[in-house]
Amino acid sequence: MGFADWYFKRFVSYDINIPIPSNNTQIVVVIPVHNEPELLNLINNLWECNVPDCNVAVIVIVNDSISSSFEIKQQNKNSIEKLKLFKESHSQEQISLHYYHHQFKDKHAGVGSARKIGMDTAIKWFNHSDNPNGIIASLDADVKIEPNYLTAIYDCFKTNTNYGAAVLRFQHPIDGEKFSKNIYDAIAKYELYLRYFRLGLEFAGYPHAIHTIGSCFAVKAENYIKVGGMNKRQGGEDFYFLHKITSQTNIGSIFETCVYPSPRVSSRVPFGTGPEVNKILNSSDYCVYHPILFKMLKKWFSSIEIMYKYSFNDIEIVLKNIDPIIYTFAKDINFEALLADVKLNSSSFNSFKKRFFTKINAFQIIKFLNYASFHYPKISVEQAVTKLLEYMHIRAQDKTPDLLQQLYKHEYNI
Length: 414
Prior knowledge:
Layout: H1 5-10, E1 25-33, H2 39-47, E2 55-65, H3 70-89, E3 95-104, H4 111-128, E4 135-138, E5 144-145, H5 149-159, E6 163-170, H6 181-204, E7 217-220, H7 221-226, H8 237-245, E8 250-260, H9 273-281, E9 287-288, H10 292-302, H11 304-309, H12 312-322, H13 324-332, H14 335-344, H15 349-359, H16 362-372, E10 379-380, H17 381-391, H18 400-412
Parallel strand pairs: 1-2, 1-4, 2-3, 6-8
Antiparallel strand pairs: 4-7, 5-8, 6-7, 9-10
Helix pairs in contact: 6-9, 6-10, 6-17, 6-18, 12-13, 14-15
């Protein structure tokens, strides 16, 4: 019996025919591929990495849908041929390449399903060797990685045995010659928003303020299956997956290496980097959630001891005093019943706090931000960052690149 037998009995999983690698495989890197002419850049990048004291397997899931264009299907066919030639000419004892082509029905097509195929395959391999601590690393085909990518992941989980997952440091390139200046300017704004949103959650006191980028995380096998595996969403699969994991394990940060996602415009997914870059290119300004909403959340979350100790009548007064928007939102989500359930199932304040943030989680926070934006409209990302830093008593820089450097220093302690 393997540790993941129950997972395959309970959840539907794609069954693909890839030989099981050696039992000493401790890291499996999963790469979904859809219409990627420069795929081999990443594969070469991986083969140039320092390899840790274990075997590493790379799974490439080349995918398209029934209705994909002839050009996309042809590009995917070319990718398979290139992978085949690469595998034949690059034999290395510690790192192995595995690839598979899958054509989805249109309703199931997307990066979530492709990522799930690769990750479920990794679980089958780790289950075969009964290795619940095996590591699954998630990449995208258009990223660049540093030579210590694999060793940084391995060392992180070896040193921090209490981590069930980890997010990696990342940075979109905001200058260069490969793309136009407009694209670099657009990705700089989006990068600024990503840092702003995470910082806003941290400022509010939310305990799981993490980035959720599909090419920048790794997860232990046992924790992957605890949340039912990767979802099949066509976009945002990384956000939903990682925020589900926060409820049942510690998520660490890996700052010792860096992943560089591409700033390219893309329509492969309904939302994410590619669509956001396109949106910025086609708008006069890039507007994001007003920082005053994070300030409201901070006041709400700061009153958590009151929510634990006092009756709901007293809590209602506190919510009204924070802001009527918080109060009406709490009523809309039936906060009284939610809080009663949390209290009933908590034996101490610490367990209450932990359970509270499984209910008022990132999904509820997004719901609140969207709800409250009708009352406090979005503002430009530069204005939002400047105001948030002001709340933190930090003097903001004037321009986007300088603001970015400021947020990098805060986040990475550099």
